[in-house]
Amino acid sequence: MVFPALYNGPINYYARLVQQKEIVLEQYDSYSKQTYRNRCMIMGPNGVIGLSIPVIKLHGAKTQLKDVRIDYDSHWNRIHWKSLVASYSSSPFFEYLADELSPFYELRFEYLFDLNHHLLDHTLRQLGLEIPVSRSDSYTGITTDQDPRHFIHPKKDQAVADPGFQPEAYHQVFSDRLGFRSNLSILDLIFNVGPGALSYLQSSLRI
């Protein structure tokens, strides 16, 4: 099975990745808007925030993900990092993890796929895992609704699309007044739970 290359993907994505002995990222799928490939969801002081990476896309043409370039005109990287600091600086593990994460928002990755790949490698290491990650050699079509490229999508109700994902609530920075929000970016889990993130991921799938 191949996996989509997501930007700081959601928890149900990582719950599956940590079970793999090796990970293959699909780089030949056609890029489409409003997916987790260029956005992630975090919990801010006023509720859930969607952080989107602007891309340079060829109009009127299907562009493979590996060829999608990042648009830095809006300085999105600075905005995303400031949002992460504002949202998680008071979380239990932010200060221990921020120094290793911040360079990804200082470097200028030309391609979206490269950024997502490097962030995935980094996150797996933070989880204490050494799972080899490679890139697909050709496009593999979606043939089942169990394909993560099919059901891991911000526009789908995850309770319906992914019933095997049954996570427990954990403490979030603003949960005392905003309540718990499930299946946010993996960053939300890591900043709030720290070393317990891996066991949380491993226990959140009931399939």
SSE layout and pairings?
Elements lengths: L10 H7 L5 E3 L13 E6 L2 E6 L2 E2 L12 E2 L5 H13 L5 H8 L10 H15 L6 E3 L12 H4 L6 H4 L13 H4 L7 H8 L3 H7 L4
Parallel strand pairs: 1-6
Antiparallel strand pairs: 2-3, 4-5
Helix pairs in contact: 1-9
The percent range for helix content is 25-40%
Give the neighbour order of strands across the main sheet: 1-6
Give the rounded overall mean pLDDT. 94
Give the class from helix and strand content and strand pairing.
Answer: alpha+beta
Cα(first) to Cα(last) distance is 16 Å
The biggest beta sheet reads: 2 strands, parallel
Number of strands: 6
- Give the strand content: 5-15%
The number of domains: 1
Written description of the protein model:
The chain is an alpha+beta fold. It has one domain. It has 9 helices and 6 strands. Strands 1-6 form a two-stranded parallel ribbon. Strands 2-3 form a two-stranded antiparallel ribbon. A two-stranded antiparallel ribbon has the order 4-5. Helix 1 packs across helix 9. The longest helix is centred in the middle third of the chain and has 15 residues, at 112-126. The two termini are 16 Å apart.
Summarize the structure.
The protein starts with 10 loop residues before the first helix and ends with a helix. The protein has helices spanning about 10-15, 75-90, 95-100, 110-125, 150, 160, 175-180, 185-195, 195-205, and strands spanning about 25, 40-45, 45-50, 55, 70, 135.
